[in-house]
Amino acid sequence: MMVLGRLVRKPPSPPGSCRAFWGWLNAVFNKVDYERIQAVGPDRAASEWLLRCGALVRFQGSPKWQQDYNGLPTGPLGKYKIEAINATDSCIMYRGFDYLDGLEHVRDIKLEKCMYIQDECLQRLSETNNLQKSLLQLKIISCGNVTDKGILALHKLMNLKYLYLSDLPGIREKETTFHALQQALPELELELDLD
Predict the structure, then answer these.
(1) SS3 helix, strand, coil % of the chain, rounded to 5?
(2) Which residues are CB-contacts of 93 (< 8 A; sequence separation ≥ 6)?
(3) Given this model, what pLDDT does residue 74 score?
(4) Which of 53, 66, 136, 165 is the most exposed place for a label (fewest CB within 10 A)?
(5) 87: which DSSP letter?
(6) What's the per-residue H, E or C state across 20-42?
(7) Sheet holding 108-112, edge to edge
(8) pLDDT score, position 67
């Protein structure tokens, strides 16, 4: 009987294998499907990506946050335009940011507790032409891989009116960084909770 127990017992997992699996799966969720963008339009494709990764979207003219992938509204191509993104606790990463390229109506983005958000993501966000025109409000909270370099990259978001930064331990040169950002964006209201 003891021999059978040893044969049936699951072998121990190598250290970190579970974390590696989730990292791989998150990378798969972030893979950009350019054919899908062409087929359903940028807003629908981006909605699918964001919801697949655990984020929420709000469409123009709707007060309700969309969180159910299977409940995404259907209709004619281009009918639903993303106005706001709440990526709290989501697995969005740089690899998927090409989905943002075609979004023309995003006014508000919240990045909170996003473990894959890093400086390159903020740089990519700020280099997205449509977001440079439409994005008015950005909140970055508890994203541990964001440093001064990422915050400084936001200077390209010329229409940004409000920036909230909280719990970002990677920001080391606070005074210099925020002064440079305020110089580049004089209309920006900067709210900080970084202590």
Answers:
(1) 40, 15, 40
(2) 26, 27, 30, 116, 117, 121
(3) 86
(4) 136
(5) -
(6) HHHHHHHHHHCCCCHHHHHHHCH
(7) 65-66, 56-59, 82-86, 108-112, 137-141, 162-166, 189-193
(8) 94
Give the H/E segment covering residue 130: helix 129-134
Token digits of residue 36: 């899908």
Residue 109: name the closest of 157, 52, 170, 153 by CA.
Answer: 157
CA 51 to chain centre: 11
Instruction: Give, as one character, the DSSP assignment of residue 12.
Output: P
97 vs 7: CA distance, rounded Å = 46
- The tokens for 103 are 């979004």
Helix (H) or strand (E) holding 120: helix 119-126
Alpha-carbon distance 110 to 53, whole Å?
Answer: 14
Contact partners, residue 110, CB within 8 Å, separation at least 6 = 84, 85, 86, 87, 88, 138, 139, 141
Running along the chain, 195 residues long, what does each successive block of 10 average in pLDDT? 46 52 61 95 96 96 94 87 98 96 98 97 97 98 98 97 97 95 96 89
pTM of the complete model = 0.87
Tell me if 82 sits within 8 A of 46, measured CB to CB: yes
Strand partners, 118: 145
CA distance 120 to 51: 22
